[in-house]
Amino acid sequence: MDIIRIILAIILPPLGVFLQVGLGKHFWINILLTILGFIPGVIHAIWVIGRY
C-alpha cells in the first residue's frame, strides 16, 4: 500500500499525506508546502509516508 501512496504523493502530494495520516498537522503543512512549491510538497509527502 505504501507504493500506491508514494505514487499519489508524486502526482498530488496532499492526497498521499491524507491517506497516510488523515487531516492532521502534516496534511496542512503539506498543503502549504505544495502551494509554495510543488517539489517541497512532494519531498514532505514522501517523508511523511516513509516515517509513519
Provide a brief overview of the structure.
The protein is 87% helix and 0% strand. The protein has 52 residues and is mostly helical.
Please provide a written account of the structure.
With 52 residues, the chain is mainly alpha-helical. It has one domain. It is built from 4 helices and no strands. The protein has helices spanning 2-11, 13-21, 25-36, 38-51. The protein starts with a helix and ends with a helix. The chain crosses the membrane at residues 6-24, 31-50.
| Beta-strand segment tally | 0
Structural class: mainly alpha
The major pleated sheet works out as: none
Helix percentage: over 70%
Jot down its keywords.
4 helices, 52 residues, mainly alpha, YqaE/Pmp3 family membrane protein
Q: What's the topology here?
A:
Elements: H1 2-11, H2 13-21, H3 25-36, H4 38-51
Subcellular location: Membrane
Keywords: Membrane, Transmembrane, Transmembrane helix
InterPro entries: PMP3
